């Protein structure tokens, strides 16, 4: 399975991949206790330097998003999809989350094989370690370092990282490049246009967030944006043309070698490494308790034999985990 640069659109097998050029970077001042604030987000490449949190932003340069003509669509060959037997996922009421309400949570993601982030409203987030042996380490608030732009939702991550998401733009805190000294007073914000996203932007739903990846549901497409490379890359999956059933409500996340999707009682894994003559997809039935989970954060092994570490789920009735914290020790910090 091939991935394409973010300024082109093409089709490959049954997966559409496309890219949208970065809309430039800006520096935001975050001196003192005040959160960094965005000005008007420009439509072109811009470098913005604010001299104080309230100073107006200035920009230079602009340009349209360019899209190259689509490449010829190759002949699609239906490859058999491997079926895996996933173990039942039995979650019980999670402890250590009494300070937050399920109604205030918009998403939970397992951002690595061991770490969870719980995202709340208004840019609030928490680092969650359900298997921690010290009570104070189970739930740690994540400090927001910016105010979300108007009309955008902020997803705060550890170490001053974040994403903001709106129908027309995405943005993230771009870490300093290796070997360069970071200015602790400034944040470099990398912005992306959504103009080349396929699907219905008015129905955009965020399914997964980590420091360098974000997964969207766009009604008729699933989009996966990866910023590990430069330029950033995006995979766009046309739901109707996929060899697996991702219609209806979908949950998603990462695996060691790709991505998982839960829909219609089944779990589907998409391998990020292409092997000629082999479908990148595998599938299996996922039995999960409780059965009314509206959110799921876990890390399934690519072979379906196990889940790495602990798992976490949310429902209207509360939070659930397979690490009930029976042996936690209270401590004062």
Summarize the topology:
Blueprint: E1 9-12, E2 15-18, E3 22-29, E4 36-37, E5 82-83, E6 89-90, E7 92-93, E8 105-110, E9 116-120, E10 125-128, H1 135-138, E11 139-142, E12 146-147, E13 153-156, E14 162-165, E15 169-173, E16 186-193, E17 205-209, E18 213-217, E19 221-226, E20 233-238, E21 251-254, E22 258-263, E23 266-271, E24 281-285, E25 288-289, E26 295-297, E27 312-315, E28 318-321
Parallel strand pairs: 4-12, 5-24, 6-25
Antiparallel strand pairs: 1-2, 2-20, 3-16, 7-28, 8-9, 9-10, 10-11, 13-14, 14-15, 15-16, 17-18, 18-19, 19-20, 21-22, 22-23, 23-24, 26-27, 27-28
Q: Any overview of this molecule?
A:
This protein has about 325 residues and is mainly β. It has one helix at about 135-140; strands spanning about 10, 15-20, 20-30, 35, 80-85, 90, 90-95, 105-110, 115-120, 125-130, 140, 145, 155, 160-165, 170-175, 185-195, 205-210, 215, 220-225, 235-240, 250-255, 260-265, 265-270, 280-285, 290, 295, 310-315, 320. Strand 13 (about 155) and strand 14 (about 160-165) form a beta hairpin. The chain is globular and about 50 Å long. Mean pLDDT is about 75; it is low at about 1-20 and about 35-75.
């Amino acid at each position: 399975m091939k991935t394409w640069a973010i300024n082109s659109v093409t089709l490959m097998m049954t997966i559409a991949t496309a890219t949208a050029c970065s809309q430039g970077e800006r520096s935001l001042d975050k001196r003192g206790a005040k959160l960094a604030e965005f000005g008007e987000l420009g439509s072109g490449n811009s470098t913005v330097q604010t001299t104080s949190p309230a100073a107006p932003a200035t920009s230079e340069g602009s340009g349209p998003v360019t899209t190259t003509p689509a490449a010829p669509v190759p002949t699609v060959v239906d490859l058999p999809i491997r079926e895996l037997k996933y173990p039942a996922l039995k979650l019980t009421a999670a402890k250590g989350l009494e300070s937050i309400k399920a109604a205030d949570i918009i998403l939970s993601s397992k951002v690595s094989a061991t770490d969870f982030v719980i995202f709340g409203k208004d840019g609030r987030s928490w680092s969650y370690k359900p298997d921690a042996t010290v009570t104070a380490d189970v739930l740690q608030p994540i400090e927001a370092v910016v105010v979300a732009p108007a009309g955008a939702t902020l997803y705060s991550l550890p170490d001053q990282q974040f994403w903001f998401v709106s129908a027309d733009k995405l943005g993230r805190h771009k870490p300093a490049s290796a070997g360069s000294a970071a200015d602790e007073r400034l944040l470099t914000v990398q912005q992306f246009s959504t103009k080349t996203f396929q699907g219905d932007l008015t129905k955009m739903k965020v399914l997964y967030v980590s420091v360098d990846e974000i997964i969207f549901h766009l009604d008729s497409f699933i989009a996966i944006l990866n910023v590990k490379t430069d330029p950033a890359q995006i995979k766009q999956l046309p739901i109707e043309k996929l060899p697996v059933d991702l219609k209806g409500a979908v949950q998603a996340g990462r695996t060691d070698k790709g991505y998982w999707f839960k829909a219609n009682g089944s779990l589907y894994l998409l391998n990020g490494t292409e092997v000629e003559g082999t479908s990148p997809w595998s599938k299996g039935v996922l039995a999960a308790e409780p059965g009314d989970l509206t959110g799921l954060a876990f890390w399934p092994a690519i072979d379906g034999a196990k889940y790495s570490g602990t798992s976490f789920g949310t429902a209207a009735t509360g939070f659930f985990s397979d690490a009930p914290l029976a042996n936690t020790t209270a401590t004062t910090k």
